[in-house]
TrEMBL record:
Similarity comment: family membership: Belongs to the CcmB/CycW/HelB family.
Protein name: Heme exporter protein B
Function: Required for the export of heme to the periplasm for the biogenesis of c-type cytochromes.
PANTHER family in UniProt: CYTOCHROME C BIOGENESIS B-RELATED (PTHR30070:SF1), HEME EXPORTER PROTEIN B (PTHR30070)
Cellular component terms per the entry's GO annotation: plasma membrane
Length: 219
């Protein structure tokens, strides 16, 4: 698992895996929103957490189609499925590498980009915390869609169609937790714990479903 994680991480960081594309897309979305909304700082501050979360979701979708496609093209996917590491654990390693390369930079950049959206300090910290807890769920959900579309020559659109409905609950509870940290009547703990629970749930179900989809596509 460690060797597979380091291999995929090197591929993602080299640019061939598409991780850097997602980071640049996230920066472009967040940086251009203030120009479209206008100079209303109150409005930007109110919708800022949602913008950061939507940008993170769309950026993650961009990187998912190449999660297994490169291994499918060079024949490495069959070796991974029949290797000494159990297929669900191999999928989990690949998801971890993708998250470190493509999503962790989004989490680290979110406080800085939140300044462009006039977010309060508490909102900046809450957004970073919710992205840290919720973006692994997006990758794990996306692994299922990527596994289904791995055998297709152009499965990028299919991955987005399959993943987006399943990712909506993660988006809802992530934004709700961020708003709860800023607005006193709204709760923070409950939606944040649900967000963490979704990540743990998909951490179990996602690799199992993705490995099953990959085996079916390879038969």
């Amino acid at each position: 698992m460690r060797a597979l994680f380091l291999r995929d991480l090197a591929l993602q960081l080299s640019g061939s895996g598409g991780g850097l594309v997602g980071v640049m897309f996230f920066l472009a979305v967040v940086a251009t929103i203030p120009f479209g909304v206008g100079p209303d700082l109150a409005l930007l501050s109110r919708i800022g957490p949602a913008i950061l979360w939507i940008g993170a979701l769309l950026s993650t979708l961009l990187t998912l189609d190449r999660l297994f496609q490169a291994d499918r093209d060079d024949g490495g996917l069959d070796l991974i499925l029949t290797g000494p590491v159990a297929p669900p654990l191999a999928v989990l390693s690949k998801c971890a590498a993708l998250w470190v390369a493509a999503c962790l930079p989004l989490v680290l950049a979110s406080p800085l980009l939140g300044l462009f959206l006039a977010l309060e300090p508490r909102a900046l910290l809450a957004t970073a915390a919710t992205l840290l807890a919720g973006t692994p769920a997006l990758v794990l959900i996306g692994a299922v869609g990527a596994g289904v579309a791995a055998s297709l020559p152009r499965g990028g659109v299919l991955v987005s169609v399959l993943v987006l409905p399943l990712a909506v609950p993660v988006l809802i509870f992530g934004v709700a937790a961020t708003y709860g940290a800023v607005n006193d009547p709204a709760p923070f703990r409950s939606p944040f714990l649900i967000l963490c629970a979704l990540t743990l749930l998909y951490g179990v179900l996602g690799p199992l479903a993705a490995a099953a989809a990959l085996k079916l596509s390879s038969d």
